[in-house]
Design brief:
Elements: H1 2-6, H2 12-22, E1 26-31, H3 35-38, H4 40-46, E2 50-55, E3 66-68
Parallel strand pairs: 1-2, 2-3
């Protein structure tokens, strides 16, 4: 873990590309859990015109734009 954290990676280009993709859009971050199934209708409405990121899971229930994996 320490070796991984001390690795220096120049991700400036990737960060700029992501900023350009997201620019002007609100971001919605979805975490895993039973509430995303229970609140599906509310989430479906919230997805409109937003850049949607899931955290540490993928789903076929919603259209997403990115996955943040830690």
């Amino acid at each position: 873990y320490t070796a991984y954290q001390s690795s220096e990676i120049n991700d400036e280009k990737a960060a700029l590309e992501l900023c350009n993709i997201i620019h002007g859009r609100e971001v919605l971050i979805l975490g895993s859990g039973s509430s995303i199934i229970r609140e599906k209708n509310k989430i479906d409405k919230a997805l409109i015109n937003r850049f949607v990121i899931t955290t540490n899971f993928t789903t076929t229930q919603f259209v997403t734009d990115a996955l943040f994996r830690h």
